[in-house]
Amino acid sequence: MTGIIGKYADFEGLREQAVALRREGLSRRQIRDRIQVDNNDILNRLLDGEPAPDWTKRPNAKDDLRAKARELRLQGLTYDQIQLELGCSKSSISLWVRDLPKPPKRTREEASAIARRGWDATLQRREIERQKVKATAQQEIGALSERELFIAGVGLYWAEGTKDKPHARRERVAFVNSDPGMIRVFLAWLRLLGVKPERLQFHVMIHESADVGAAERYWADLVGAEASRFGKTTLKKHNPKTIRKNVNEAYRGCLVIHVQQSADLYRRIEGWWCGIVVGSVSAGDSDG
Asked: Stretch 92-102: mean pLDDT, rounded?
């Protein structure tokens, strides 16, 4: 102990050196090595009151959240409301704002308005994340080869297209869907198979309470077909007792695509699908 005291007997002189080095921007380690101080308690006393240079500070990913949390607290938000708005834990919020005054009690209407704002912010964050995931997944697909489109089209048809049954022979190609993306993929697949546009016939299926004319124009524009290629629209009678969700202006019913003289094509599609089933089973067995 006597050796340590003797080594640092000129404390004020060491402090002057340490402070000067700190103000030059040196780190604790650099100062320790420069003035030969290997006792952390002594070094702490020498540097007492001197802030560390910015370059030695680690960036804190939560600094922005902390600042926002304090701002919201000063606006009078509760921990629950701040959590809804920022998406961080209440334990972190408590540490960040515990020195700030508690918000005054609010009326029920004020509390509801703040809660709605917090929930809207949460929904916005979720939507941003949802779109980000979708965009990343879309980039993972990239351009399709002809074989990839061919296999995708077979699966698409077997999921959504008309199929032959032993009790009801329907060896014809007909595809029904309300998703414009599905319609585009199906038409691209037919082009890949060499099906000529003049072999295609269309008609719309939609509730009678919808804007039928707008739906017919929408589907005609989507497929790039003349009105003469469209058959009579099938209208589904409106049942006022049924609570339907698809009632806004985005509702356009379904488009039906018929391929004329398509019995042979249908048989090939069924065969292709059987080939996919057998191929997938074989691939699964080989992995084992």
From this structure: 86
Distance of alpha carbon 11 from alpha carbon 9, whole angstroms: 5
Residues 6+ apart with CB under 8 A from 160: 175, 176, 177, 182
Q: Which helix (H) or strand (E) holds 255?
A: strand 254-259
**DSSP letter at 229?**
G
pLDDT at 198 over 50: yes
**Structural domain includes residue 284:** no
For 96, half-sphere exposure in the C-beta direction (CA atoms, 13 angstrom radius) is: 24
Domains: count for the chain: 3
Distance CA 22, CA 3 (A): 26
Same domain, 209 and 242: yes
Report percent pLDDT > 70 for the chain.
88
Stated length of the chain: 288
In tens, the pLDDT along 155-167 reads 999 999 999 887 7
- Distance, first Cα to last Cα, the chain: 70
- pTM of the predicted model over 0.90: no
CA–CA separation, 43 and 28 (whole Å): 8
42 and 114: one domain? no
Q: Are 257 and 177 in contact (CB under 8 A)?
A: no
- Number of C-beta neighbours around residue 160 at 10 A: 14
Is 170 in the same domain as 252? yes
Pick the last residue of a domain from 56, 85, 102: 56
Q: Is residue 23 classed as helix, strand or coil in its secondary structure?
A: helix
Per-residue DSSP letters for 128-188? HHHHHHHHHHHHHH-SPPHHHHHHHHHHHHHHHB---BTTB---SEEEEES-HHHHHHHHH
